Every structure is written in structure tokens, then in C-alpha cells.
Amino acid sequence: MASMKDALLSAFAAAGQVLPQSLPDRKASDHKSITSGSAAKKGSIAQSVDEVRSGTASKNEKRHVVARAPNGDARLVPVEYGQTRPYVPGHRSKGLESKANNRPGKGVATVVMRDRDPAEDKALVPRKAQVAPMSQQAEPETLRPEAAQPEISVAPDARCLVTYYPDVPRAAADHGEAMGVQTQLAASTATDVHDVTIGLDFGTSTVKVVVTDASLERSFAVPLCMVDGFDAYLLPSRVFECVLEPGKALDGVGYSLSHGDRAHRDLKLGLLAHPGSPEHRERVVAFFALVLRNVRAWLFKQYAGVYRQAHIAWRVAIGLPSVSALDNAMAPVLQHLVCAAWHVAGLPGTITSGGVQGALRESLTAEALDLEVVVLPEIAAQIYGFVVSQRFDRKAANRFVMVDVGAGTVDSALFRVLPPKRGVWSFEFFTAVVQPFGVANLHARRVSWWERVLGGNTKAEGLLEQLSATKFDTDMEMAPPATYLDYFKGVAVRNAPKPPDEDFFQHQVMGQVSGQTMWRAWKESLLSKEDLTGIPIFVCGGGSRMPFYARINDEIGRTPGCPWLRAEPWLLDFPQDLVCENPDPAHFDRLSVAYGLSRLNIGSVTQVSPMLELDTPRQSWGDRYVGKDAC
Prior knowledge:
about 625 residues
């Protein structure tokens, strides 16, 4: 019989490994780690490993294999011939002991290892659902050689095709600053009162506003920009800081929607990331105040005859991308900022830094301002236009999936709409997920990929500098190119390893929609497979128009191992009571959140509990018959 040393050398030679020239003989019973560093983690060895048998012996003798763990460590593991069974998942193993495929095999080696700890088992999650947030992801360890770098060729006339801003930037409309300072047009003797709600959809890239007058039973989309078409309702979420002329303000700093010395972007994401920051709060309040002043001015100019005869009971509804908006820690923050903005908008003259800071220091309340401020889940507001349409069947199950693709995030939820009671709507959420997988973050991922690929290429220095300057822009007025290959003209890529688009779409976007939103509802016993098969799905938001995100509807039924996980794409209808100067049914979903915020009277928003599993005792067949002795 060959010595252990010869067997070890033979095994490593077969595995393509190189051993030191001097290696002391070891006894066959001394199975220690043969590599430096930490030992392989117990229970994980023999997963994705190379097995090599060493030596020759009879069937009843122990043998040894060289097994490599995922971390790269190699160990000698004892094996013996005898009975073996293929691995069967625990939830399917019961009753399979007598199956033919579980019969003992002849001359099959079995790795002797300790019983696996159930705590180490991963949940049986579809591949797309096993996704960590972008900030937590790391490149997996691999035993394969590194992929070759792509072949890049840069033409002399190559240029960058990415631009977020047109030649003429979208300018904010000015509906009359002086008129917008007012909150009422009617004289104090007027007795009529109209309930008016401003639906403020504060998005990462744009803000949209719809005003609803409950007394008129009409909603009005407010044009906030001086452009033609539907873009007039999409005001970029940015505010300009400008230096004022001496004497106009004590601190000399003012704010504007259209011009200034410095543009503040990323207002929403900056606030959500740093809700206690005085700088972020000041910029958001200034932005809100300018928007609210413009909205009131437009309403008073367009419908002066109505509001000179009636007082207005004002209400501002703002959305949060969370199922727990009613309990969310950001809800009171937004309420305070809206109250401060309402007060600042009513101050005459230019909105200044000092005026905003003074309002933030005061303990302003909605009651003191004769105002009502509510914070609502954006998903609930977005579905409102559908539930009040003729297509909504109150007797149906009314379970829906909503996916809102924005500039910064993808907000997805699976929920049920309960029948309204006295005009009040309630929602039951099964799952709700918000992830940073929106258009701006897709663009940032693509730019990072190009920076790695083109880094060090002297021919692409200028191109890369121009592209990198757009990496973190969020107030985009133009969509990024359809694919990462369309970012340059005159730059060719061949043999690209791990292209950014497919990786981002499958592991991030579909991992959220099909895995964390839909599949998880079944995994946590919230819904059955039958409930999820063919469930209606609405894919909305500005980003949904990109071919990249439009694939969600096509891919939703292709989750590996889950043929029952399918959804039926539906579209939101354009409401008949929405007055819009440039109506475009294909773009209503971009106004759907603001419309719902302006009209929705919400009752309760609850989280559904898992379904109870009834423990029904098994009954023997003999219990159903009467024996002959009882006759």
C-alpha cells in the first residue's frame, strides 16, 4: 500500500496543486489541515469542491480525499465505501426512504463529516431573491482565475453621449409672486368654504403637484415649468442660492427656482440621509416655500372668480416611500418642514436664508397656521386613481403589486385594497420594499463600470472626465442612454466580463420585485401560490419608460424554480375628474401619486400577519368503519 506522502502528492498532482519539496510523513489517522491559515469552516466543506481519490485499497478500507473549501483551504477528509443517499431537502425527505433513487449504490465513496447544523442552512430562496442592498454587497470569493479585461478601442473622434440637461434647461414658471403670498382671496364676510388639498409629490428628480377642490369635485394638475407638453408638470427638484443686493436681507442670501449663483440638487435623498442636518432642512423648506407660493398664485389666477367668493380650508398632503408612513420617523419631520414652508411662503418679498432659519426655529404647528398637513404612503396614493375607476371591482380579491421606478429608488409593494367605508380607504400590506435601484443609481453603476474599464487609457481621459461629472446628478431632465454601450460614440467594447446592465437588472431590480416583494409573501405564509399566480402588477414612474425597466413585465414570470410566480401587467387609467392642460393618458402614472395624495382619505394602513397553519390530527382509515363485533 502506498504511503500517505505518496498518496498526498498524487492527489495534489491530479488537482493541479504544487506542494513544497519537503513534506514529512504523516500517519493515516492524522488528518490535519495541509495549508497555512485558518481551517475550513465546519459543515461547509465539500460544497463546490474538487474531489480526488488517492491510493488503491479494498472496498472495506478507509480512503482519503483532498477537499477544498470555498475560502481556498484544503483538507484531507476520510472516506469509506458503503451506503450513500443523495441529498434531499428536509421538507421533501419524509416518506422518500423507500424510493429507488435512495437505494444504496455500489462502490460509492461517502465523505465522513459532522451533521449539518440547521442554523447554517440557507432559506430556499430563488436565485434572484438572494440580494443584499447595494451598500452591503461584496464580490464573492471564487476559485476560478480572474476574468480577462475587455478589449477596448477608442476612435480619434470618440465622444461622450450622456447629458442630463437640454441646451435650454427647463425653467420654472412664475405665476405671480405677490399673489402667491396670499392664502385667501375672499373677503372676511364670505360664508362659503371650499376644502382644497395640495397633493405634493416630492420626487428625487422632479416635484409634481395636483390640487383638488372637494367642493367642486375637480382636480387640477398645476404646470410648474415654462415648457410645452407634459414636461410642464415636472419641476426639477433643485433650488438656487443667490447673493442678494445690499439691504434686501440681513444675511444677503436668497433662494430661487430659476436662477442663482449655486444650485442645490439631491434635495430629497439628502434629507432622507441626514434628516437632522440644518443645511438640508433649510434647502428643502426654501424649495417647498417657492413651490407652494407658485401653486397658490396659479390657482388664484385661474379660478379667481371662485375663490373670491369662498374661504379655503387648506390641506397639504405629502408622500413617503414607505408602508409605515403613518408611523415613520420621517413623518413628523416632513410635517414640520411643510409648516415652516407654508409660513415662509406667506412672507412678502424674496425668500431668504434668514427667513427660513427663523421659521425652523419656531415651533410652528398646523393648527396655528390654519392648515392641515398629512403624510401618506406614496404607494397607496398611486393606486387611488385605479380604485375609483370603473375597472375596480369591490367584490374581487383586490390584491395588487405596485412598482414605482423613480430617479433614486424603486418602491415596490404587494397589498390589498379594502372596500371603502364612508369614503375612507384602508390598505393591507403584505410586503413593501424600497431600494436604491432607480435610474440615477443605475447610471452611477454604469459610470463606475466605465471608470474601471477605461481607467488608465490615455485616449479616453477626456471622455471619462465628462462622463464622471454626471455620475451623481439626480435632478435629471433627460433619461440616460438605453444601455451602457450607448454611453459613447467611437468606443468599442469586446469580451466584456460581467456587463453592468444585466447584473444590476437580475440581481438588484428583479431580486427586489420578484424575490423580496412577491416570493417573500409566499415564503412568509402571507399568501398562497394560487393567490400570487397572475396577480395584477402596475409598473409606474418616470423610469418605467426606459427599456431597461420596461423588462420587468416580461421577466416577472421567469423566476427560476417558481413557474407559479407570475403577474399580469395592468395600466393606470387617466381620471375623468383631472383637469390637465396637456392630457396624455400614457403619462398619467407620473402624476398618479400627486393626484392620489390630493384626494385620498386614508383610514388604516396595516401589515398582514402570516396565515395560521392548522394542526389537523391524522385519522386512520380504520376509524371510519364499524367492526363486526359492534354489530
